[in-house]
Amino acid sequence: MNQLKLSVIVVLLIFLSACGVAEFFIKRTVNGLEDKIVDEFSAYADFTAEQDREIELFARDTANWVRSNRLPLLVKHLEQTAADLERNGRLSETTWRDFVLFLEDPMVLSQAPDVVYRLADLAYSLDSQQTQQVLDRLSEDFSESLAERQDQTADDRHDKIIKGTKQIFKAIGIKRSSSQLKQARTMLQNRHDYAEQNIASMIQNHTSFTELLTDKGENPSEFRARFLAQWKVAERPPSESVPDAWEHNFVVSYGMMNYLLQDLTNAEQIDAVQGVLDYAALFRELSTTDIQLGSNTLNQLKHTIYDSPGSMPVSLK
């Protein structure tokens, strides 16, 4: 379910944007998360009214999980980042490691099994026609995602890292020169690329979820257990699936980050600390809002089409 993951990542990472109205978009995204999830699911099949209600409840529970668990963790990491910057003008290895581990797997919905079980129950309730509709949509989305992943090169990934890093720095008041960014880009050449392993995992996840929907078995409880187990596999981050390569790349990224943080002026350091704390305060505020069912009705949402529909849990890799 790529759109679900994208929605959550937008919530957690939109602060990286250099947009001057970032706060507006952050609040708009967080407060509309449940409607985005409903909209994503509504496109997969012709659901009954009872199933529509279950989708709404899943969306509510997922959004509340983000607010109650993931946003507070993000606040913690931002506050630790600010403390490091204020104290030393750079990040400790522990701070950077914890933050990177969080950002590479910001959702971890399997830690809220009741939420995943709700989705499993919905999948189990699908009749044969609905199941085929979902499978057809999954296949279509998977093919698009796979083609996009296969077309991306290591250089494309490195360029994306530099672009994101530049946006992060700009958003908190740090400007790096072209030569500094070029050197940082050169440092990334030392990364180990594990795209092939990621693609293999993506294919396996798609196959596994397809098999789950095709053969649900006769016992709903057993299906729940199988669904959650596969969800955990799909959520498995690179730090666990390719630990040696991940550790090597972490060292590279840590060196690059602190290279870019060296020689901060006093004014840049003060602005950076305050900028990070401002975002921490914003996410803390948003984490205290409990979700009720969205104001949009499902009938209205069914006429809304996202520009970038994604795939089901397969894309969580």
UniProtKB/TrEMBL annotation:
Domain of life: Bacteria
Name of the protein this chain belongs to: Lipoprotein
